[in-house]
Amino acid sequence: LKQVFNKDKTFRPRKKFEPGTQRFELYKKAQASLKSGLDLKAVVQLPPGESINDWIAVHVVDFFNRINLIYGTMSEYCTEKSCPIMSGGLKYEYRWQDDSKYKKPTKLSAPQYMCMLMDWIEMLINNEDIFPTRIGEC
C-alpha cells in the first residue's frame, strides 16, 4: 500500500472542492444522488436551479479522482517491462500525441502513456478558463 502513495508514482491525490463553495455543495448532491438508487437516469439528472456546466464539472472531477485511484492501485503491476505498449487488447494500440513534445502519434509504454494522460487531464481540470472555480463563471 505504501507504493500507491509514493509521490514518484503517477498516483495523484484527489482533487477537492472547497467547503462552503457552490461546487462543494454540488459535489455533496452528486454523491448523495449516486447513493440513492440504481436508476442512473434519475441519479445524474441536473438538480433544480443548478448550472449544467457546474454539474458536469463536478462529475468530471469526481470521475478523474475515481480513475486516478483505480490506476494508482494497479500501477505497480504495470511496469515498462510488463506493459511495453499501451493497448486495448490485441486489436487496439494507443499512441500519444500532443502539441509540444510528441508532434506525431508515438508508441509509449502503458505507464508512460498513463502518466502523460493523467498530467494532461489534471492540467485541463486546473485550467480556470475551462473549469472556473468561482461562482457564476462557467
TrEMBL record:
Keyword tags: Kinase, Metal-binding, Transferase, Zinc
Has UniProt tagged this entry with the keyword Transport? no
Tell me the first and last residues of the signal peptide: none
Q: Which GO terms describe its molecular function?
A: kinase activity
> One Pfam family for this entry, by name?
Mob1_phocein
- Which residues are recorded as binding Zn(2+)? C78, C83
List the InterPro entries: MOB_kinase_act_fam, MOB_kinase_act_sf
What protein am I looking at?
A: MOB3C kinase
According to its UniProt entry, this protein's organism is Alca torda
